[in-house]
Amino acid sequence: MKIRKYTLAIVCVLGLLASCNKKDDSIPTIVERDRTQQQVVDNDSLIGYLETHYYNSSVFETAGDHTISELVITELPKDESGNYLEMPDPDNNTLLIDAVGAPLTTTYQETSYNYYILKLNEGGGTAPAFTDDVRLNYSGNLQDETVFDSTVNPADLDLLNLIQGWRLVMPQFKAAESFVENGDGTVTYSNYGLGVMFLPSGLAYFATPPYSVPAYSNLIFKFELYQTEENDHDSDLIPSYLEDLDGDGNVFNDDTDADNVPNFLDADDDGDGVLTKYEDIDGDGDPTNDIGANGIPKYLDPLETASNQDN
User: Euclidean distance between the first and final Cα of the chain, in Å?
Assistant: First the structure.
């Protein structure tokens, strides 16, 4: 999917360009913008968008499972001088700035970011963790309403393969409360998460977007969250979200044995030669509650080498 990271492809392209003509010094060096300064620009742009666009809110006030195809976001009308006029039909429409409420904040790449959510339906099922798989429909837009990515059928995505904004927003919604498998192979979901995320470029692609998205673009994603499944990326009996030991929402920087493999991808988290799943001494399927002499779980203590495979 286009919302996956494109780092590897970009590295390959840059490497190819460098090898084509090492004597050519005319290729300009691209200097990445300062994240803190860019966030100020992005946030002003997002607020400007939210203040000048409205959506058909009355549609979503009626009972039923609505879809992103029913959502219509429209720019306010302008007069001949380009000044914005009042929102038409205020009984049936709502300004986005009034609907999203206060900005949500996060720190990412040592930068403080604001982002915004339009919650049309929270959903009635289980909320995904930021490391989980999700099944959903979505549409990705630029602020000029250009659609750069969308699904036709529900897509299964690992949130850890997506941009940071998705890992922040998805846990604030819930999957469907129930579903029915139809005779034609389709599935009907009931009471699923339905919303829109408004992301600054720093929580999206920033300086390295896919070809269809300009650099430093704020992005808008509409989505219907149908299902979620807990991920254990290294099959060590510990859900990946629990491998975020410092609780910063980033599992890539938790590496107990300092072997440059983060715990959520490391089958032996403490590097003691005993696989983490075998340090589930009591056999209850949860190594996190097997506490060693030092007061920490055995799977995080290289001095604890007991295994449930020992005779």
Answer: 47
Which of 224, 204, 235 has its CA nearest to residue 134? 224
* pLDDT for the residue 9: 42
> Which amino acid does the sequence have at 50?
L
Check: CB of residue 3 under 8 Å from CB of residue 162: yes
Q: Encoding tokens for residue 21? A: 């003509």
Tokens of 44: 């002003």
The single-letter DSSP state of residue 177 is S
Residue pair 177/157 in contact by the 8 Å Cβ criterion: no
pTM over 0.70: yes
Tell me what pLDDT residue 8 has: 40
Residue pointed to by tokens 């058909």: 56
Query: What span, in angstroms and rounded, lies between the C-alpha atoms of 300 and 293?
Result: 12
Q: Is 105 exposed, middle or buried (0-12, 13-18, 19+ CB in 10 A)?
A: exposed
User: What pLDDT is attached to residue 6?
Assistant: 44
Point out which residues pair with 197 in neighbouring strands.
117, 221
Yes or no: say if 175 and 227 are a contact pair by the CB < 8 Å rule. yes
| pLDDT under 70: residue ranges of the chain | 1-30, 311
Taking alpha carbons only, the member of 61, 136, 70 closest to residue 99 is 61
